[in-house]
Amino acid sequence: MNARTDTALLQTADHHLSSGHLDALEEETIFILREVAAAFERPALLFSGGKDSLVMLRCAEKAFGAGRIPYPLLMIDTGHNFAEVTDFRDQRAAELQAQLIVRHVEDSMQRGTVRLAHTGESRNVHQSVTLLEAIEEFGFDALIGGARRDEEKARAKERMFSHRDNFGQWQPKAQRPELWTLFNTRLASGEHFRVFPISNWTELDVWQYIARENIALPSIYYSHPREVVDRRGLLVPVTELTPAQDGETVQVRQVRFRTVGDITCTCPVESLATTASDIVIETLATDVSERGATRMDDKTSDASMEKRKKDGYF
Description:
alpha/beta, Rossmann fold, 14% strand, six-stranded mixed β-sheet, four-stranded antiparallel β-sheet
């Protein structure tokens, strides 16, 4: 990318920032966060320490004030998360004086409610079971998540206030209308809502907001050297959980993570970006979605995510 291209992309980014677009998104998110606090008795905010949940957390700070967020933070930990992210999660929760609840897939495995097909199977999809168990344990009636409609097709179908039945299931054809920012939050016993305040944000919006608000992130979101192997077009990080396979060549490359999840299914991309503004430029230039470029578990059919969501996935 040459200097002229960089300048043009920066001008485009500056236009977005100065147009009030981010202000409108932030205002909508704050409105929804306050609606959840008013409409539900036992809500929780899903907080992984990732960029989208950190954007939501900044909006929650603005909505309620530091140390006054009226619902706990909840994370479902597969036990295979990047240490940089979980350490940052704990640090940020402590800074905000927020209650952090962590529930572990490993505990579900010990209870026998989660059974892996083999020891090397990704635990990512099994988070749904542990999440539903946490909902039952604490009686949560609304869970606030950081999913965005631009991530993939199944998520693009979902309402901001997404109803779940008493089995935790999502029924795409039974969604409730959302006209003029009026939300039907009526619940029967055992039901709950998933609420997505940043549904209308894009990856570019998120990074522009991070740059504008100077939001601190886990270090792996920025360029750093890492051992990887090229596997079917993805840069797979070489770890104890994801070792190199026979015939693969381990390389050290400058990479960053566009999205952060379970180690067994999350890949970085090559990048020299060391600031949020650098990433804004990269995002403007890319034509591949963040999940399409980095998630091994999304290399299956589009129906697979929709099925997982129907079964209780985030």
